[in-house]
Amino acid sequence: MLASSDWRPVEPDLETILGNFSDPLRELSQAEIPAIIFRQIYNPAQFPDLINRLTNMGLMRPYSNNEELPSQSNENQQDRRTRIDIGTSLGNLGNNKELFFQHAATTHFLFKFLFEGLSNPIDIIYEALSDLAVDKQVEVAREPNGQLYGPAIFRIHYTSHAYKPHIDHVTLRENRTNYAVHRFKHQFAGVLCVQNADSTENSTQAILHHCLWTPKIQPHITNDTFHDYATKNQIERCQIDLEPGDLYFFNTSCIHEVPAVEGNVPRIVLAVFIGYSEDDDKIYVWS
Ligand SMILES: O=C(O)CCC(=O)C(=O)O
Ligand SMILES: [Fe+2]
Residue whose CA is closest, atom 3 of ligand 1? Predict the structure, then answer.
């Protein structure tokens, strides 16, 4: 294993990444590196149009970056969600398999026309992943009967939204053995930054801990004591500072967190989950 002070992401482009690691996803699966970062892989000048489109279609709540005005006139009907998903989340909808796949079909329909006139950010994520995948085929996850999972998900995080230290794993965390994606030993996430929470000061950014989940770690997650545990055990941490248009991949079995969003400008990402096994020639992607 590398000395912990060497636990740094590999970046900024494919050439450098492959120049450093012949099989970067394998390195990620072993948590030898915290993340793989592609800088400015998507032209961020397109995001304001995309965000306007999402807002005008009623898919996300409008916001203002200079006033406190509520966005809806009727107080009682105010939408107070601190996270809005545009897409189909297995974590949130997976308890009802039939509804989950119906919802995913609608997401595929939406994403067919949503990006018209812009470059398709989902394609960009899949292409980057394919470039990293040595001898493996990258596909939208599907059940043996052909039902497709959602291909990617926008997550709009409004003020106060935080992800406490956690992992994401369909088997280790969610125990969803009734879904085909559970066959993959390792799970990664890919996250494209669409908008930072605050463009003027230090904005909310994800933090990865050099600590793969084990049953021994779980009580620290459940009891909210992971930070104490990390300090006592001198666990290295790595903040992934992103600008709109940057994409990072990380191993979601490493404990990770995103501190609370502050201010009126929501943090917006386009995210995927990824299933990877060394001995499987497919890489499945879902949301
Ligand atoms: O938004 C992020 O950067 C990471 C969110 C997260 O915890 C995840 O995708 O598993
Ligand atoms: Fe996560």
Answer: 206
Atom 9 of ligand 1: nearest residue by CA position: 189
Atom of ligand 1 nearest to the CA of 240: 3
In the structure, what pLDDT confidence band is assigned to residue 2 with cuts at 50, 70 and 90?
Answer: very low
DSSP the chain: ---GGG---B-SSHHHHHHH-SSHHHHHHTTSSSEEEETT-S-GGGHHHHHHHHHHTTSS----SS----SSS-GGG----SEEEES--HHHHTTSHHHHHHHHHHHHHHHHHTTTTS--HHHHHHHHHHHH-SS-EEEE-B-TT-PBPP--EEEEE-TT--EEEE---TTTTT--TTSGGGG-SEEEEEEEEEE-S-SSSPPP-EEEEEEE--TTTHHHHHTT-HHHHHHHTT--EEEE---TT-EEEEETTEEEEEPPP-SSSPEEEEEEEEEE-TT-SEEEEE-
Q: Is the CB of residue 197 below 6 angstroms from any atom belonging to ligand 1?
A: no
pLDDT at 70 over 80: no
Class assignment of domain 4-58+82-286? mainly beta
168 lines ligand 1 (CB under 6 A): yes
Ligand 1 centroid from CA 191, angstroms: 7
The full set of domain ranges for the chain reads 4-58+82-286
In the chain, the percentage of residues whose pLDDT exceeds 90 is 86
- For ligand 1, say whether the CB of 31 is within 6 Å of any of its atoms: no
Confidence of residue 64 (pLDDT cuts 50, 70, 90): confident
Q: Which of 82-96, 172-186, 256-270, 272-286 has the lowest mean pLDDT?
A: 172-186
